[in-house]
Amino acid sequence: MSAEPVGTVTDPREAMRGVEAQPGSRKPDPILVIDDLVRRFGGLRAVGVDHLEVQRGIITAFIGPNGAGKTTLFNLITGFDTPQQGQWRFDGKPLAGWSPHTIAQAGMVRTFQLTKSLAKMTVIDNMLLGAAHQRGESLLQALLPARWRDQEVAITERAEELLTRFNLIHMRDEYAATMSGGQRKLLEMARALMAEPTLILLDEPMAGVNPALVQSLLQHVEALRDEGVSVLFIEHDMDVIMGISDWIVVLAEGEVIAEGTPDEVSQNVAVIDAYLGTTLGGPSPYEDGQSDA
Amino acid sequence: MLILADIDVGKLLGDATRTAVGVPAATFALAAVGLNLHYGFTGLLNFGVVAFMAAGAYGTAIVFTQGWLGGSVLMGMAAGFTFAIAIALMIGLPSLRLRADYLAITTIAIAEVLRISFRSQRLLDVTGGPFGLPSIEDRNAGISFKDVITIDWNPLPDGSHGFWRLEFDEQTLWVMILGWGAVVVASMLLWGLMRSPWGRVIKAIREDEDAARALGKNVFAYKLQSLVIGGLIMALAGMLDAFDTGFVETQQFRPQTTFFIWTVLILGGAASMWGPLVGAVTFWFVIIFVEELLRQMVNSGWVPDWLLQSSDVASVRLIMMGIMLGVLMIWRPQGLVGKKEEAQIDVR
Q1: Exposed, middle or buried by CB within 10 Å (0-12, 13-18, 19+), for A103?
Q2: What is the ipTM of this complex?
Q3: What is the rounded CA–CA span in Å between residue B255 and residue B49?
Q4: Distance from the A209 Cα atom to the nearest Cα atom in chain B, whole angstroms
Q5: What is the Cα–Cα distance from B266 to B262, expressed in whole angstroms?
Q6: In the sheet that A199-203 helps form, which strands lie side by side, from edge to edge?
Q7: Nearest CA in chain A to B211
Q8: Which chain B residues are Cβ-neighbours of A95 within 8 angstroms?
Q9: Intra-chain end-to-end CA distance of chain B, in Å
Q10: pLDDT tens, residue by residue, A51-64
Q11: What confidence tens digit (pLDDT) does each residue in B283-309 have?
């Protein structure tokens, strides 16, 4: 799985070569397509995306200044928030009106900016919770261990493998409350992987993580992509974004203002404006931008 | 020590122990097992424990006294459980999608609505109104569902059983056995559920609903299941109370009973398997111990009349219980047998 099929025509990254660096540009094999999605909070339009496609099998980053609507966009497409209008399709399925858990079951699994580790549960229980299609999660079968024990053994094995990969195996039976902030980020990501998503949405996975850990986290994210999982993530650290992303989507005031490869985006005038302001001393439209938490 | 000479230690310990192993303790333990599922494991703030208990007790009593469905005790119990499920759905369907505090408000409101309705003149023919069921005439004539349980179904030989101050007649002992048996069965059911993947989802919901949702778990359905199962256990507790006293009336379903059961759960330790049982036994032991001690002290003149009279003793015991709960919250928020790591109430 880790061997990179570089150079083959089927490589999704290769396929992105010819894609225009324009907001709303068409992708060869989009896993997520957003159309005319609008979310207003009172008078503030937090998200207003006309058209956005996310390519399958690559790492896509959402960047933008505070208040750009990145997290709101995440919340909308995962069903945690409801848009005033708009449609989005995941793997061809229109998801508007779906509840968060059915969206997760469909294969689009997210993590949160503020980690939601389940503090009074052990690390291994946190992991096992992530696994989908568990027979023992049905009330009628819960009291019949014979019905779910083999499955439990199998997912425990998978959980331990992931914990080993994420350097958390030594915490296996500790309560999640005892972990450091960085370890919780790792746990949340590993737990999301237990659900075997086809698209994983990571909301600032590197925020608050020890720089020594960031490198290993990045490797995990790349390994995920190489295993065929599509990754969509929000990040603020420019070094991280430029180093790891295959494609970058820049948001400002809820709109997609630029798209492209890291090189293209870093030279885009609109992006530089959005981050640094327009004219010296002039009014910046982003100063009163609310936090996108 | 002069004081010890005036205190009948045997009566003090004997009476306290007697109550601590009695049916009221079993009733509280059973209701606390249900509340443990609601609050300790799922994080549902149910302040309407008595609504479920009343549903169980009244369901049984109404069917029995009205002669509906054949008027048997078993059909009555079935009706009581059905009633409890209906209450759980009535509370859960509208309020479980909302934040936790709304459930608290809804549950306490429904419990009061239910109690006041049962008490009303309009329902006099069905619920006995303020007089309860069976009617006083029936009770005087010796017609009660209690007899079915304690006489018809009682395998124990007649007479007194036990030793020391723990002598019980065969009827009381039989209900005690049934009651504590029910506590054990309900606890094992809970234990079985909580060690399953179902229980894992339930605990995850307590910790963070959104995390569970993001992993594809139907949080609403799980909360509703928890509400129904815990409610059924509480309904059984209500029936047990009715089988013990031989009648049901609204007095025993006032909100304070709900808060006693919360006390029991917190005392023993929420989210622990032994918590409800240990809590109920401790609760009743302390209540009776303090009451009896104060009464003996008042009667022997150790507590002056102007400070406390024998008729006030019953309220002082509640004050003592309150102080104990406060001390426990500060020094042992996980309860007597709870795990510190899983303590549900963290005051610091």
Answers
A1: buried
A2: 0.88
A3: 8
A4: 20
A5: 6
A6: A108-110, A199-203, A230-234, A59-63, A247-252, A255-260
A7: A116
A8: none
A9: 40
A10: 999 999 999 999 99
A11: 999 999 989 998 888 888 888 888 888
